[in-house]
Amino acid sequence: MTGPAGAPATDLAVNGQRRAVSDVPGALLLWALRDELGLLAAKYGCGVEQCGACMVLVDGTPRPSCRLAVRSVAGQEVTTLEALRQEPEGKRVVDALVAANAAQCGYCLPGIAVTMTWLARRAPVAWAEVVRSLDDHLCRCGSHPRILRVARQLLTDAPP
Amino acid sequence: MTTPDGRTEDGRVAGEDERRRRVLGSLVTQPDVDRWVDLSVPGRVRIRTGKAELGQGIRTALTLLAAEELGVDPSMVDVVPATTAAGPDEGFTAGSRSVEQSGVAVRQACAHVRRLLVERAAARLVRAKGDLVADRGLVGGPDGPAISYWDLAAEGPFAFRVQQPAPLRAAGEHRYVGRGMQRVDLRAKIGGAPAYVADLRLPDMRFARVVRPPHLGATLAGPTPVAVGDARVVRRGGFVAVVADGEGAAAAAAARLAATLHWVEGPPFPEHAADPDYMAAHVVASYPVVHGTARNEPPRPRPDPGDGAAVVVRARYTKPFVLHGSIGPSAAVALADGHSLTVWSHSQGIGFLRRALAPLVGLAEDRVTVHHLDGAGCYGHNGADDVALDAALVATALPGRPVCVRWSRDDEHGHEPLGAAMSVALEAGVSPEGRITAWCQDITSYPHNARPIPRPAGTRLLAGWSLDPPVERSRAVPMMDFEAGAHRNGTPGYDVGAPWIVKHHVDDGSALRTSALRGLGAPANVFAIESFMEELARAARADPVAFRVAHLADPRSRAVVEAAVAMAGGLEAPGGVDAPGRGLGFAQYENSMAYVAAVVELDVNPRTAAVRLHRAWIAADAGEVIDPDGLVNQLEGGFVQAASWTLLEQVRLDARGVASRDWESYPILRFSQIPEIETRLLDHPGLPPLGAGEASCGPAVAAIANAFFQHTGARVRDLPLDPPRVRAAMDALLG
Fold it and tell me: What is the pLDDT of residues A15-48, one digit of tens each?
């Protein structure tokens, strides 16, 4: 199919809506979200799936969006923090991180909130899995201790 | 070194009376209260600051201070982002000075405004000033009418220049200061709402990526196409960018274009630049450091630490080049119309950036406006200023269209100014009575400040060096001020008589670029001094804590050291022969700001030789605490970042430049490597607040090195303490 300007397009399911995004060769999900759909919660950090700033859910599972071809997620459900923060688990995660001032610059947090929401949907989860999942994310300000504290309260029933 | 407006490069006021600076902050150079406090919007208190929100929470601290002094709810306070178009110029947001300079100024400005509001109300109500109180937005007496702040402000500007401090609200009456609050900017940031420069969207906006030389010092040869697909190519000499409708399209076009360009390699890059012998061979100037200040004069004769000493110890400590490593690469938005230029930037010094940009785009300085917008944490001079020039150059080629330029991860790792490699050589003796006899310290370092400040010639903005004709690179010059550059915390905070300290400025003339990174020389100096104090204590068969305390004259220094050790329950971890190691690190930042002591507990994974941090205890005295939660966040964040430097980080160089171009080749600490951290603040209400944003870094590095020694018996003097070095240190013990 084609988009408005005649460019090739792909239909994506993003945050519960069908959205047409351009599908030129090499088109990547992160840029479709940011450039075409105006969804800015997923951040560009490294472009090579090493930092987690661009995390989204694809069919309910955290995936970095920066190297994910648009074409490869056609027919799958893409969920960004814009939608997650409206639902109970995502709102709980964001509220808890905000209440704990669990950030400094905050740039890595939207991606971390996506992963934590995924974990919250299955809570309680084993602490080892929480930490393993957070290890997909880099933070440079050193907000880890606070993020870990929030994660422990929210995601696991292990004693602190 | 001071800038033309009499400021040091980290924004302090040179030559000012210390007391005035401490009580008035940036009001010393920007005394007009109308610049700081704006009551023109009914019901709102707008605070203007020259300091940038870098993630340190300055907006929140200023909100607390304004709310406290004006007696309004913090929700009524708006801290307006810094802009060159209005508000105070406070130099760089650097050196842990945001609260000391802007916080103190806002607090005083608001205290004066409260006083001025009472004066206006007294005139209108025909009451004595002493009968009136300004609180909760109203000025009135215990009986009778009251007038709102905003009615009173509508009479016109206060036109008052602060020369003397106004009385502040008494500590016992504080409603907000010292209690803290939720960070005002975090709901948007954590929740993923647009909050950063790269999230700015303007009508008709375009996105660009720069195609940087693949190697430092390489130059572009041959033609470039006018377009790559739909993306337009903008070229100015050796500066090449591609412009597209979206950032993804620009990134894709940049990759395609990069593959077609021809670059001429520059001179070989100094791949051994971090080697202490290489550094020693490229020292271009040496200066004695006296009372914390570098002097342009020959050093006095070096004392002999052997005089009167029972034992003499010598050691050399090194740290490699490290990256700022912002998680979000640098970005800027620019809009030009042929007559003027507007830039949105996460620069730490928008006033300096404006001055540096103007000549490069052929405009008078007053035709350039720079607005600060938040970026990812920068921790010093990263690519923020450079990308602002990139954006200005592209925008100049597209008049009337806003352009967002963002660096790629590869650009950021490969082209950001590096944190300087350093080498610190120490020699000291200990008398039979256990006193240090003499202290000699040679600090050898690349520059810590290549920020884009105005120079007689040349530029420090990256793209300027590639223009046609190129603008000469203005090389960094030694910082001479109190506790600046390589000699920050280069003077031991211990009672060691008159230490002999010389700093050696390294410049090899190569394409290598180093600049300010959190703490400048302090982390390396504190690592060296605190490791060396333990080496001295050991040589003198003294307890390392008691040896330190015996040489600490300042009771506030002793208090944080003793507090951190007490929090940990001592420096001996339970567990017998298999016990983890514990170590202490202490420094008063810049020997004049916050006091921090840290104790770390760690062990070594016998299989991987990785150091595992278990726990850390931090005790800090930052004077009066404005925002306790924000302070703890900065101290713990500084600890974690410094732990990452210590255990993992070093920039790999090769003959063509920086070889660490992503997070695989330049690993940083991850969640699974973070220790439990406990922090205690020793609050001193009524004393001046002391900058603390960088204060925990040096103590953290030192505490880790000392704990490693206690655990293994191996003294590692070269950072990082990564598995190869741990293995080598352990092998050396056995062999």
Answer: 999 999 998 888 999 999 999 999 999 999 999 9
Mutation site for B-interface testing, chosen from A105, A144, A146, A150 by largest number of B Cβ within 10 Å = A105
Q: Could A109 and B190 be called an inter-chain contact, meaning their C-beta atoms sit closer than 8 Å?
A: yes
Orientation angle between helical segments A127-134 and A109-121, nearest 10 degrees: 150
Please state whether the peptide bond connecting residue B720 to the residue before it is cis, i.e. omega within 30 degrees of 0: yes
> Of B647, B441, B594, B421, which Cα lies nearest the Cα of B521?
B421
HSE-up of residue B60 (Cα within 13 Å, Cβ side): 24
Q: What is the pLDDT, as a whole number, of residue B142?
A: 86
- Inside any domain, residue B547: no
Q: How far is A98 from chain B (nearest CA, A)?
A: 6
**In this structure, are B283 and B426 located in the same domain?**
yes
The predicted-structure confidence for B580-605, as pLDDT tens digits, reads as follows 999 999 999 999 999 999 999 999 99
Between B421 and B218, name the one with better pLDDT: B421
Of the candidates B118, B120, B202, the residue with the CA atom closest to the CA atom of residue B167:
B118
Question: Contact, A107 vs B196, CB < 8 A?
Answer: yes
Q: Which residue is it, tokens 């979200």?
A: A33
Asked whether the predicted pLDDT for residue B4 surpasses 70, the reply is: no
- Residues B592 and B692 grouped into a single domain: yes
Specify the residue for token string 């003959």.
Answer: B655
Do residues B426 and B484 lie in contact, with contact meaning Cβ atoms separated by under 8 Å? no
Q: Strand order of the sheet with strand B293-294?
A: B293-294, B283-290, B500-506, B436-445, B422-430, B311-319
Q: Spell out which residues of chain B touch residue A94, defining contact as CB-CB under 8 Å.
A: 187, 190-191
Characterize the bridge pairing of strands B219-221 and B206-210.
Answer: unpaired
Whether ipTM exceeds 0.85 = yes
Q: Are A140 and B641 a contacting pair at CB < 8 A?
A: yes
Domains and CATH numbers, chain A: 9-80 (3.10.20.30), 85-155 (1.10.150.120)
Range of the domain at B405: 198-267+328-415
By CA distance, what is A142's nearest residue in B?
B637
User: pLDDT at residue B9 above 50?
Assistant: no
Nearest CB partner across the interface for B191, out of A32, A44, A85? A85
Q: Cβ contact (<8 Å) for A85 and B192?
A: yes
How many other β-carbons are positioned within 10 Å of the β-carbon of residue B397? Answer: 17
The answer to whether residue B530 sits within a structural domain is no
Which residue reads 């620019």 in tokens? B334
- Residue-wise pLDDT for B50-101, tens only, equals 999 998 889 999 999 999 999 999 999 999 999 999 989 998 888 878 888 9
Contact across the interface for A47 and B327, Cβ inside 8 Å: no
Band (B734; pLDDT cuts 50, 70, 90):
confident
Q: Is B670's CB within 8 Å of A135's CB?
A: yes
